[in-house]
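Proteins fold. Shown next:

***
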Amino acid sequence: MAVVKASAYGHGLEKVAKVFADDGVAFLGVANVGEARRIRDAGIDARIYLLGATWDAERAEIVAQNWTPCLSSIAEADHFNQLAAAAGRRLKVHLAIDSGMGRGGFLIQELSETMPVLERMEHLEIEGIGSHLPSADEDEAFTRRQIEDFRNLIESLGGERRFKWRHLLNSAGLLGYDGDLCNLTRPGLMLYGASPLAEHQGKLSTVMSLKSRVTLARWLPAGHGISYGRDFVTPKATRVATVGIGYGDGYPRHLSGKGAEVYVGGLRCPVLGRVTMDQIMIDVSAAPDVMEGDEVELFGSHIPVVDVAEKAGTIAWEIFTGITTRVTRVYV
């Protein structure tokens, strides 16, 4: 299952979903019906899986479009069963299991009593079962217990043959753990070239590069302030380039004063002062040939996105999804 929620992690939902669909993935994983609708409107014919719980006003469309929901409650299941009956069809559904995330799904200890009730709903086909790993990149001991709990649950419900699809592993789970009980995985971040586990980053290739251009390059004297608040004052004569990108484009303001760098003229050059809405300033004293119009990489093959995220005090997921709509996407 290729997870393409949040506009394919900021990469562009329709373009990316088509690539994965053409590659024959089993499912495209989305967060809500709005994303599912965009995929269908783009003419992409692949199975769509709704990763989160739904509310009642959305469910008739889900049944009509034959999208696959995950179920978190008896009430939700009963409503889907009624809608499927009215539509004269049998809707394929998956059971969401809360094995430690706390965001949705049936609790493991309640499934033995709940399962017979679900199985009596004749217009639902319980095709799959899945859970989510909240700490696969932080807490190995808990994650291994979670995997074992999920294994024991499936065995208690009739074994692997009971469910066509069994899924648990996200990117961190897929890279760092053995999920032999699963026959479906849900990679997200790793599909976009970033690893949630640093030791596996070398296995992945960069997908997105964020770039802009130099709009101005000039020498400033010692003692000259740079950007709002004059947090940075040139200690000596400094060649400063202005770059046409800022937090209005998704380049994080939290990088201000954190040692961030960009790549231009074959060198890493430091970001000076505060990131503004539309522009940043960089020190190109070591790259005297840099001039207006030169391409600047904010992250990509030379500046890993995980490094940018770390300096900004956040995660790669947020950096990717924070790139705003005024940034042009160019697909190669």
Notes: Residues 140-156 form the longest helix (17 residues).
